[in-house]
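Usage example:
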Amino acid sequence: MKKEDRREEKNPIQDLLRMDRIPHIWCPGCGIGTVVTSFAEALRKSEIDLDKVAVVSGIGCTGRVAGYIKLDSFHTTHGRAVPFATGLKLANPELKVIVFSGDGDIAGIGGNHFIHAARRNMDIMIICVNNFNYAMTGGQVAPTTPIGANASTAPYGNFEYPFSLPYLAEASGATYVARWTALHLRRVTKSIQEALTKRGFSFIEVITPCVTLYARRNRLGDGLNLLKYYYEKSEIQHGADTRTLDISYQGKLIVGKFIDKEKPTFLDCMNEHLAKKLGDKYQPYGVNNG
Amino acid sequence: MKKVKADPKGVLTGSHYLDGDYALAEGALAAGCRFFAGYPITPSTETAERFSERIPSVGGVFIQMEDELASISALIGAVWGGKKVMTVTSGPGFSLMMENIGLACMMETPLVIANVQRGGPSTGLPTLTGQQDMMQARWGSHGDYEIIALCPDSPQECFDLTIEAFNLSEIYRVPTFVMADECVGHMHEKVVIPPADKIELVERKWHKGPKDKYLPYKLDKDQIPFMIKAGDGYRFHTTGLTHDERGYPVIDAECQDVCVRHLVDKIIINADKIIKLEEEEIGDAEVVVISYGITSRVTTKAVQQARKAGIKVGTIRLITVWPFPEKRIKELAKKVKAFVVPEINYGQIVLEVERCAGGQAPAILVPHCGGGVHNPDDIFSAIKEAAK
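Running the assembly step on the lines above writes:
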C-alpha cells in the first residue's frame, strides 16, 4: 500500500489532547484513559465554551491528566488540587473548574481540602479515579484500600477501615455525587455532563483497575479482566443511601447517581449575605457567572 | 515593565494611626490585591481581619481556608485566574506554606506573603516577637530557587514595603515576602497613605501577541516569561515538575539545568536593582552594625551611645534581606574592623555577613532568642568590643 493510500488513524478525542505529549505514561489496561475519554466526550456533548474550562490535577497517575488535556490545565502538588481550584474559580468565576485526581490525592493527603471545599459548596467538579492504591509510587496502601487487599506497605493485607468516598462527599455538603466503574463509559460521560451544567460541588468517583500494582499484587488478572470484574460486580442503585456504599475486597460495588440537589454556592452565599449586610456599599463579585 | 497608577477604590488616602498588621492589609489593597486566602495565626491575624472587613466594599474575595497549605494553594490558583493576591502568617503557618512556595517559584507565580514573625521553634512564643524565620524564608522549600524578602521596621513601612513587594513579585514573577515581626506588627504609629495617583504599580507582564505562538516559559529579553490567565483561550499547561518553555514536564538533567538555573539567575542578575539598604555614617566607620526590622530601631540607641563614646560606627539597615547585599558587604569588609549583627535569633543573617566578609572582617553576633527586643547596652558592648 502506498503511503498516501493509507487512511490516517485519528484519535477520536485528539482535539482535546496535547498530542505532542502522547504516548502517555499510563500502563496498558489502566482505567484512567477511559475516564479521560468519557470526560472529553462529556465536554463535546455539553457544548460548553472550552476556553472557559480549566483542569487541575494533583500528583499521582491520575494527576497526570492535566498534562494531557488540551485545555487550561494545572499540574499542582500532592493533595493541593482542590484548594488550587478554589482559588482559580474564585479569581475567575466564569471558569468551569474540574479537579481530576486520584483517591490518594483527593482523600488521603488532600482529604481535609476535599471536605472543606464540599462544605463551602465551592462551584467545582471533582473527578476522582479510585484504583484502591497509591499507584505512581509503587502500590502502597491507600485510604480507599479495601480490608484484606494486599499493598506494598500492607504486605500482610490491609486492616484499616477505608473511606467510602460518596458518603464522605455527601456528608461534607456535595450537591452532586455519583460512582461508576471505568467500564460504565456512557454513564460516566453522562454524570460528567450533568455535573458540567450544575453549579455547586460535584463529586464523581470512578473505580478503575490498577493493573501493574494492585491487580498483580493481589493476583486479580489483567486489566481487561479486572475492568470487567468491577463492571459485573456493580449494581446500579440511583439515589442509594450513601451510608450503604462501603466497598469490600472484590465485593459488590454499588454504583449510580446518589445525590443531585440544588444549593447556593460559596459565591452565591457570599454575594447574598454581604449585599444584605452592607447594602450599596457592597461591590457584588462575579455575579453574572459565579 | 508597564507602570500604572493604583486603583483609588483600594486606597485609603490620608493620615492614619494603624498597627503594622493593618498597614500590611492597606498596602495590599492599595497595590491592587483583590484576593486574600488566609488562616488565623497570632500575631498576624489582624491583617486577615482588616482585609476581610475592607474587601467587600472594594470588590474582591477574602476566604478563610482550612489551613495554610490550602491558603497558599488558593493564592497560586487565584493568580492563574488573573488576580493579585496575598496572605499573611507567622512561623507555624509559614512552615506549612513551604511546600507550595516551591510550587509558586516553579510556576513563576507572582504573590506576596507577609510573615509577622514570632518566637519559635514549634508553637514557641505565639504572642511575642522573633526574627527566626529569616533563613526559612530563603531556604524553607526544598530544591534550589531564589525569592525576594523585605523587612519593614515600622507600620509605615508595612504599608510601603507591601506595595514594593507586589511590584517586585510582578517584575520577577516570584513569591515575595514581607518579613515583619510581632513588634512591628502590633506597634501603632502614624501611617500616611498617599493619593492613588501617587502610588505607582507594576502591571502584570501580560502576553499580548498571537495566542498560538505563546509559550508559557519562553524567556523575554529581560529573562522573565510573559504571563497569561486561565479562561483566555490559550489552553496552556503549567506544572510543578521540571519543565521546558512549553510548560511541559521534562525529566532529565539538561532541562533541570535550564529550568533551575533560570529560577535562581533571574533574581541574582537583578540583585542590584532589587536591593534597598539604608546606610548611615558609613564613610569613615570602623564598625558597621547590620540590622533589620524592629532590631534596627533598637540599634539606633546603641549606636548613639557608641558615637558618644567616640567610636566610629556606621549602620546598615537591610530593607531587602533576600537577595542578600553581598557586593556591598564584600566592599565594606575590606575597610572596616568588624561588623556587628544584632538579630532576634541565634545567628542567621550573621552567617550571610560572615560569608560575604570572607574572613576580611569578623562578624560579631548579638543574639536574642526571642520574646522581646535587645537591650541596647548589649549591642553597645558588642560595638565596643568590635572597635578594639
